[in-house]
Amino acid sequence: MGIVIDPDECIGCESCVEICPDVFEMDGDGEKALVTNPDSTADCVDEAIETCPNEAISRD
Fold first, then answer.
1. Which of the residues 17, 25, 28, 58 has an alpha carbon 20 to 30 A from that of 40?
2. How far apart are CA 37 and CA 19, in angstroms?
3. How many domains does the chain have?
4. Within 13 Å, how many C-alpha atoms sit on residue 16's CB side?
5. What is the per-residue pLDDT for 1?
6. What's the confidence (pLDDT) of residue 60?
7. pLDDT band (50, 70, 90) for residue 49
8. Closest Cα to residue 26, out of 18, 58, 59?
9. Which domain holds residue 49?
10. pLDDT in tens, 3-34
11. CATH number of the CATH domain containing 10
12. Alpha-carbon torsion, ordered 17, 20, 8, 59, to 10 deg
């Protein structure tokens, strides 16, 4: 089960990066979040999923 971000839904608010920096980072333009560790089982991933204002983060 991997962690994914829907780039069409991501608004670049950076909440996931702030909550879980070992799993998420902003892209080179600072406009969208990227998953750096899609197989992470860190507890902060669930918090990032719940906090995302556009529900752009999910587990596939």
1. 28
2. 14
3. 1
4. 30
5. 64
6. 87
7. very high
8. 18
9. 3-59
10. 999 999 999 999 999 999 999 999 999 999 99
11. 3.30.70.20
12. 170
Q: What is the 3-state secondary structure (H, E, C) of 8-21?
A: CCCCCCCHHHHHCC
Q: 1, 60 in Cβ contact below 8 A?
A: yes
- Candidates 17, 39, 41; CA nearest to 27 is 17
Q: Compute CA distances 6 → 27, 34, whole Å.
A: 13, 9
**Cβ-based neighbour number of residue 46 at 10 Å:** 14
Which position has the token pair 């089960």?
Answer: 1
Please give the Cα distance from 56 to 59 (Å, whole number).
10
